Amino acid sequence: MVKITRPILHGIHKCERLFMQIEKARARPVIWISAPAGSGKTTLVSSYLESHRLPSLWYQFDQGDADPATFFYYLGLAAKKAAPRKRQPLPLLTSEYSLGLPAFTARFFENLYSRLKHPAIMVFDDYHEMPL
């Protein structure tokens, strides 16, 4: 499933200068890479993860993520792919949580982080596609 799969790239030139900048930035909890469409952000991050053999969870935003239940469903699938040995599924956003979305979100991400190997990297690709 493309939405939760890191792109596999062949014949890509490793940009060591940008890799070094990512390495420096990894001391912080969040790295935001911003550039115009088509400039190679996805390629950069995917090639960095591949060259450093880092465990990752990849999530590509699209218009369907306007529905929080859809977002959490696919993010749960991405988590299962990133940590297949964890048998207990992440919670689904059902109608019973509709008024408590902040609490559900906190619990979901707490469970998600506990499943990932460290140093795991979560990539949210095409964030600009996220409907507001």
Structure report:
The protein has 132 residues and is mainly alpha-helical. It has one domain (2-129). It is 39% helix and 8% strand. A two-stranded parallel sheet has the order 1-2. The chain is globular. The mean pLDDT is 92.
Q: In terms of per-residue confidence, which ranges show pLDDT below 50 for 5 or more consecutive residues? A: none
**How would the global form be characterised?**
globular
Assembly state (oligomeric): single chain
Number of domains: 1
Distance between the termini: 24 Å
| Overall pLDDT metric | 92
Q: What is the makeup of the main sheet?
A: 2 strands, parallel
Question: What is this structure's SSE topology?
Answer:
Elements lengths: L15 H10 L15 H12 L3 E5 L7 H15 L18 H15 L5 E5 L7
Parallel strand pairs: 1-2
Features:
two-stranded parallel ribbon; mainly alpha; 132 residues
Short description:
The chain is mainly alpha-helical. The longest helix is centred in the middle third of the chain and has 15 residues. The model has no long low-confidence stretch (mean pLDDT 92).
